[in-house]
């Protein structure tokens, strides 16, 4: 699949405002600052489509991007950012939970983790949660450009092992928003799921 058009359509903080056109949705989840917005920009070949920041916790709403006029990529607020006040955190997780547990249009979730670190407890909880709700997902190991070539296999194995047994995980994909590695593989998987 080639992405020929991509545009931002809405930033929503209430599930009652979600699009009603029934188009398939690909949702992105992951720790704050892990690289969700950068991944969207790389996939779409547009530098400033999704807002990238060195300050974690920037994406605080469900950000909808319409791709090829035929499906949405939905950028979700990142979790696990310590410096956000508790009441704001609670609001975000409610929003994410409401969205993920009720939205039939979700065809696939991209669960983004950082290649440099062992998955956090929240990363594991998110996977467990997607399993519980029977939502198919792929685990995208991003920022792989930060890992020395000779250490990639070992690092990926460590991450897979740390997650343990997963039910609805379809695949692990290594990715870099800098080099573009993994982009074509991700696009193929997305294509498969939006047409299923
Ligand atoms: P929130 O919206 O705050 O949850 O963050 P996010 O997950 O959308 O992360 P974002 O894309 O804004 O990227 C966070 C930081 O990581 C930025 O400084 C990016 O430039 C950097 N970054 C993202 N992806 C990569 C990557 O693949 N490689 C490297 N080296 N840096 C990356
Ligand atoms: Mg973001």
From TrEMBL:
CDD domains: YihA_EngB. GO terms for cellular component: cytosol. Keywords: Cell cycle, Cell division, GTP-binding, Magnesium, Metal-binding, Nucleotide-binding, Septation. It holds the Pfam family MMR_HSR1. One of its GO terms (biological process) is division septum assembly. Its cofactor is Mg(2+). Residues 22-196 form the EngB-type G domain. GO terms for molecular function: GTP binding; metal ion binding. The keyword Cell division applies. The keyword Magnesium applies. PROSITE patterns: G_ENGB. Necessary for normal cell division and for the maintenance of normal septation. NCBIfam families: GTPase_YsxC. Belongs to the TRAFAC class TrmE-Era-EngA-EngB-Septin-like GTPase superfamily. EngB GTPase family. This is Probable GTP-binding protein EngB. It comes from Kryptobacter tengchongensis. The lineage of its organism: Bacteria, Pseudomonadati, Candidatus Kryptoniota, Candidatus Kryptobacter.
């Amino acid at each position: 699949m080639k992405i020929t058009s991509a545009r931002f359509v809405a930033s929503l903080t209430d599930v009652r405002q979600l699009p009603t056109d029934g188009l398939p949705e690909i949702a992105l989840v992951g720790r704050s600052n892990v690289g969700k917005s950068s991944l969207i920009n790389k996939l779409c070949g547009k530098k400033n489509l999704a807002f990238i920041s060195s300050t974690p916790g920037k994406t605080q709403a469900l950000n909808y991007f319409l791709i090829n006029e035929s499906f949405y990529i939905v950028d979700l607020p990142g979790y696990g950012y310590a410096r956000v006040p508790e009441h704001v955190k609670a609001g975000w997780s409610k929003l994410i939970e409401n969205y993920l547990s009720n939205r039939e249009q979700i065809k696939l979730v991209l669960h983004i983790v950082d290649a440099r670190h062992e998955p956090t407890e929240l990363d594991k909880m998110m996977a467990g949660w997607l399993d519980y709700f029977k939502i198919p997902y792929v685990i995208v190991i991003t920022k792989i450009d930060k890992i020395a070539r000779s250490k990639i296999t070992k690092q990926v194995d460590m991450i897979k092992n740390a997650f343990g047994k997963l039910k609805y995980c379809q695949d692990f994909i290594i990715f870099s928003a800098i080099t573009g590695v993994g982009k074509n593989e991700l696009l193929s998987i997305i294509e498969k799921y939006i047409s299923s």
